[in-house]
Amino acid sequence: MSDTLKPCPKCWSEAFSGWNLTDAYAYVVCSDHECGLSTINMRYRDHDDAAKFWNQRVEDPELAALRAHVARLEAGIHAVRELIEESIGVYGLHGNGDVAPWDDLLRGGQFEDCLHGFSDAQAAIAERALKEAKP
Ligand SMILES: [Zn+2]
Asked: Would the pTM count as exceeding 0.90?
């Protein structure tokens, strides 16, 4: 292969090329399985063509770095969301040993100011997902 593969334009992870033995075509795929970006649907006749196409799609490095930064922030938000879904609340917030339930701390709750940034970030992620899902 003559072209070196550039990083994934979506998440900036390393990319690698492959060959589909069943249907005999070359492709390039992002190494981050959660990203999943690939040229698999394009069915290139060889690795050079697949690499050329993949490398043309690489965006400005600064923009790509920002996208990767956003992806890391979103992963953090999702991690906190999972923690919230797997627990009942926060001990020690009230200073009296009572649990502060998550519903009290999130948007609409009695103490929503505690996590308003988290609630806003979740809303932003949901809005973006909705926009990306629209054709
Ligand atoms: Zn990727």
From this structure: no
